[in-house]
Write a structure and sequence with these properties.
alpha+beta; 7 helices; 4 strands; elongated; disordered N terminus; binds FE2/S2 (inorganic) cluster
Length: 164
């Protein structure tokens, strides 16, 4: 079985689970059911933790490994809950050689979370990402749609403070 553990404990409600059961029932037996069910599940729960993947696998009579394979392949799906402000630090090659590792570390230190994590108040979530096509601005960090480029570690804390 693949390791589909997430960094944050699952806390879905019975109402959310019932909604998911209805979505599964509506798609069960149809070809190509996996994608629409996963998309609906992510809308219901905000992310796709192991528990939700198991419900989908059992509901659609598919191996969990197949569900996990789809979830981990498409960037639209998330294994972890997202904060109100979603931080992505680019660890693509251009950013990495310009010190993206130090940027990531500065974010981790400021917020006390690692990639895949979310602050207890739900305000910030942190992810490392691949090249976002702004290599000329390396190293780059995104917060929701805002792009910050040519960053130094010292700039990280003041930028994050703007979102408080
Ligand atoms: S490697 Fe970071 S934007 Fe391209």
């Amino acid at each position: 079985m693949p390791n589909v553990k997430t960094a944050v404990p699952y806390c879905g409600t019975p109402e959310q689970e019932e909604k998911l059961r209805q979505v599964i029932a509506a798609h069960k037996g149809q070809p190509g059911a996996t994608m629409p069910v996963l998309q609906a599940a992510q809308e219901i729960f905000g992310y796709l933790p192991e528990e939700v993947q198991i419900m989908i696998a059992e509901g659609l009579d598919l191996p969990l490994s197949e569900i996990y394979g789809v979830v981990s392949f498409y960037t639209q799906f998330s294994l972890n809950p997202k904060g109100r402000y979603q931080i992505s630090v680019c660890l693509g090659t251009a950013c990495y050689v310009k010190g993206a590792g130090d940027i990531l570390q500065a974010v981790e230190q400021k917020l006390g979370i690692a990639p895949g994590g979310i602050t207890p108040d739900g305000k910030f979530s942190l992810d490392a990402c691949r090249c976002i096509g702004a290599c000329g601005l390396a190293p780059v960090m995104m917060i929701n749609e805002d792009v910050y480029g040519r960053l130094t570690p010292a700039q990280v804390a003041p930028i994050l403070d703007m979102y408080k």
